[in-house]
């Protein structure tokens, strides 16, 4: 009996291990049999006898084009927070208690400034990169080389070079560096990140914690992951740690599809969420850096935000896609094109704006001075306007901030819990608005929706507000228990706010 149970236990454990292996390899386990899933048509991955993926061919083909990057920084001894043991003894106290510490009965000593402080070159950090042309151009992250006084590149063969920076872009975290070599260097093929799909196998090669030519693997976890940055990231579960930054994310065809850039972690180490810059986005930056040493981006001069679902319904939109214009820069491209605060931008130059964060990316990739079509949703219908794209300036324009103004005698609008008054002509001129009413008191539904005193109501649903009388009439006809969208101007921003009237 013990022998039978022992044999059953062995089979159970064996099936469990096979099942886990099959799940890891993308295979299905049914009734104790392992059924191999059919590979995609463009897959070049080999499968071992055990049914697990074998990446050895891809690694052999690509790893020689991946480099280790070490950066150095020149600092003064005093800048490192140290003290001179042969100098003023009070410096020892300042080292521990801060630069303003004054020992009892000590005579104040003037701080010495100037360039006569001793300097030393210290290691700054470790990262990765990959060669994209045989004459020595290398892609890495901006944060890997930013602030470095010296950049050392080590090839997989062990040869070390000093690199020069061709250009870098902080906004996309992409940098292009170059090394000089008499022989042609191995390069990586550039893939197409637009064809990536969830669940697809990918590899990362880099130098985590300085360990050269380390290979890790995983799958695509998400595409177009919006983290609030300028780019939509590729999310993977590939093990990426400090030192992997700037290294390639490689598909099963041995092509680069991303540049490893960030990890999402509470500990500072790998926790299963890694973010990579899509190679299509990276190459647009690299091509500009190679040509001019800098990145030129388009702009249209608007502040935007997401479209709330209730606002979309109130405005007659099919869904909450698009970018809600909250402010238009005076004299900017959008202003000249006739775009108004409260418009919802739903398309630009033939590209659909699905999320508000799509617009800066699409516009940024447009060459300045290009005339483009921009589609906006305004007062219940779509309009197409012509706009000439501007260039992102080095210093952003000063923002116009609305200050408090006196209003005319307030009138109560009971159903929204608001007391409003007409907007003064001076305020309308300064804010470049026509009409509207200004809130002087707020309670009930309006307060619950987040409205404040001094907010200016420019429109209700798809109707512009001219004065208090008209506003009162519109509010009185609003259907009960259905949210109305109020276009609110608050300081220098304009936004739609859904408010459900009381009965």
Automatic annotation (TrEMBL):
Name the Enzyme Commission number(s) assigned to this protein.
3.4.21.107
Instruction: Extract the ranges annotated as region (Disordered).
Output: 104-126
Known PROSITE patterns for this protein? PDZ (PS50106)
Designated name of the protein: Probable periplasmic serine endoprotease DegP-like
Q: What EC class is this?
A: hydrolase
- Family of this protein: Belongs to the peptidase S1C family.
Which InterPro entries does the UniProt entry name for this protein?
A: PDZ (IPR001478), PDZ_6 (IPR041489), PDZ_sf (IPR036034), Pept_S1C_Do (IPR011782), Peptidase_S1_PA (IPR009003), Peptidase_S1C (IPR001940)
């Amino acid at each position: 009996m013990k022998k039978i149970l022992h044999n059953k236990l062995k089979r159970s454990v064996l099936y469990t291990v096979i099942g886990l292996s099959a799940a890891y390899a993308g295979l299905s386990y049914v009734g104790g049999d392992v059924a191999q899933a059919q590979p995609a048509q463009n897959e070049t991955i080999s499968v071992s006898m055990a049914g697990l993926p074998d990446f050895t061919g891809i690694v052999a083909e690509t790893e020689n084009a991946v480099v280790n990057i070490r950066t150095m920084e020149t600092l003064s001894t005093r800048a490192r927070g140290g003290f001179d043991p042969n100098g003023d003894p009070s410096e020892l106290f300042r080292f521990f208690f801060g630069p303003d510490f004054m020992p009892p009965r000590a005579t104040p000593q003037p701080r010495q400034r100037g360039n006569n402080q001793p300097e030393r070159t210290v290691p700054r950090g470790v990262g990765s990169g990959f060669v994209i042309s045989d004459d020595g151009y290398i892609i890495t992250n901006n944060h890997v080389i930013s602030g470095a006084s010296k950049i050392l590149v080590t090839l997989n063969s062990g040869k070390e070079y000093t690199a020069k920076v061709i250009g870098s872009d902080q906004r996309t975290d992409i940098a292009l560096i170059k090394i000089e070599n008499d022989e042609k260097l191995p390069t990586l093929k550039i893939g197409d990140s637009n064809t990536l799909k969830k669940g697809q196998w990918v590899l990362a090669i880099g130098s985590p914690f300085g360990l050269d030519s380390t290979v890790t693997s995983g799958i695509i976890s998400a595409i177009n992951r919006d983290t609030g940055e300028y780019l939509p990231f590729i999310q993977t579960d590939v093990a990426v740690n400090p030192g992997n930054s700037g290294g390639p994310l490689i598909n099963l065809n041995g092509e680069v599809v991303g540049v490893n850039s960030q990890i999402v972690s509470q500990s500072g180490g790998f926790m299963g969420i890694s973010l990579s810059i899509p190679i299509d986005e990276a190459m647009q930056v690299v091509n500009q850096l190679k040509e001019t040493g800098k990145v030129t981006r388009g702009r249209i001069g608007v502040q935007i935000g997401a479209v709330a679902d209730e606002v979309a319904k109130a405005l007659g939109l099919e869904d909450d896609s698009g970018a809600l214009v909250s402010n238009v820069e005076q004299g900017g491209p959008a202003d000249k094109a006739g775009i108004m605060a409260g418009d919802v931008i739903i398309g630009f130059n033939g590209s659909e704006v699905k999320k508000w964060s799509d617009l800066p990316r699409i516009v940024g990739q447009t060459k300045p001075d290009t005339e483009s079509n921009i589609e906006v949703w305004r007062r219940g219908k779509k309009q197409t306007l012509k706009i000439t794209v501007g260039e992102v300036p080095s210093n952003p324009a000063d923002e116009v901030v609305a200050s408090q103004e006196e209003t005319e005698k307030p009138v109560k609008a009971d159903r929204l819990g608001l007391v409003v008054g007409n907007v003064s002509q001076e305020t309308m001129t300064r804010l470049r608005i026509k009409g509207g009413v200004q809130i002087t008191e707020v309670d009930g539904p309006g307060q619950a929706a987040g409205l404040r005193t001094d907010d200016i109501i420019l429109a209700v649903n798809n109707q512009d507000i001219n004065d208090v009388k008209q506003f009162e009439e519109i509010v009185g006809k609003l259907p009960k228990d259905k949210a109305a969208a109020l276009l609110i101007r608050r300081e220098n921003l304009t936004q739609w706010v859904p408010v459900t009237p009381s009965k």
